[in-house]
Amino acid sequence: MKHCSTPEQRIEWTMNILRSPSCHGLISQSSRDHQVSRQTLYRWKQKAEQALKEVFTCRPQPRTHHPEVQRQVLTLLIEAHASYREIQTCLKSLLGTSVSLGSVCSIVKQAGARARAWLCRQHSATARALALDEQFSSKRGEAYLNVVDVHSGQVWASLPPAAVEGESWMIALWDLQAQGVTYDVTVSDGGNAIHEALKELGQLWQHQRDVWHLFHLAATIQGRVETAVEQEEHRLHTIRGYEERKVRGERFSGRPPKTTLAMQEHLVSHLLNVWEAVAYLFQQFQQLLDVVIIDATSTSGLLSAPGRQAELETLVSLLFDLEEQVPTSLKSDLHLIARQMQLALPSLLHFTHPLESRHQQALQALGKQALQVIAWAWQRRKILGPDLKTLLQGFAPAWRPIAQVLCEGWSQAVRASSVVENWHSILRPHLAVHRTLSANLLALLAVWHNHRIVPRGPHVGLSPLQRSQADHIEADWLTVLGYLPATA
Question: What is the pLDDT of residue 1?
Fold first, then answer.
């Protein structure tokens, strides 16, 4: 409770006490004269002494870190997946440099602020294809929201944990549009939050469902059917051995089988038929989602998008019919894959729509047979030519311009969001070390990844930024953030 006195009075009483610190009984006398408790006077005295000390004490200037130390800290953080204490230990053990934890935190915080500013300046000169996905955090119902360029692997946005809702994705996409990032295709694994956001934004018509997630689910369920067949065949072998010993009058260890030999043989035969049907349908499903399909019965020589749609709808209906014929233990699995395919159908064939116009132009210019030959060669491009230039050399000179347009369109078809899964694999080691990733650390990782030169593979020697922007030359991510270049 505040004393009922004015600030001027409190200043005067406290100054009198400070003037005569050694005067015996001064505080007791002041307490009686001004009707203030001794504890309150002692507290005022202590606050006044502390204020005077702060005024006349020279504050230490913030320590500036050597540029080489900053580079070492950030390199260990990103390249070695090191924690702050591990960075401190490594610098002390390997280089003899003593750096406090506070200094490490300060360096990372400053670099993270620069990285976030750099990410906000990213823009696209042309419309891009974006892969959207969530990476769930340790907190229930929240996830990291990641947006990665499909063709180049450039990270456009990586946001700290937010609620997995349509509103979160709408805000993320609005921020990208305000930043100057334009896109004409999006692809995801079919999450409800992403679907809701794109529907609200009116962009669901340009959304492609990732096909590899469905392929993986189909392969998993086919494996479960194979396991069921193997188990029943093993049981059939046991029953057959029991019947043979029973005929010979020999004893059989263990419990007698619950079914007869004929019933078990019928069950195994039925399961083998189910397995063959499942394997055939899943193989057809994968073939129907190829980029280009040769069809001799069509007028163009290639299977059209409406033809694919009709075939997929028939395949889904056959899976639902097959569900009624399988044992109870497999019904839920067959229903799951059939339902997932049915829900994904509206977005599964978006990648075929941009190709239809190219197919029609090639058909009018070269004819049906030439179009089929080009499609046949592109399907075997790994054998006929390691790159597009070598493949084109195998065509007649009159075909090459049209063949180049077709091959570029087929190679740029967006069917999967695998590139954002690659980004998740980069984040996982850092999540294991730091438990949670702040906006600063996510930005640092994104800037490092965008400038990282690929050491091997089809894009060797190029960074995601160089693949996205041909005129981008700078490769050192720390130099881009304003740090001095590394000394030789």
Answer: 46
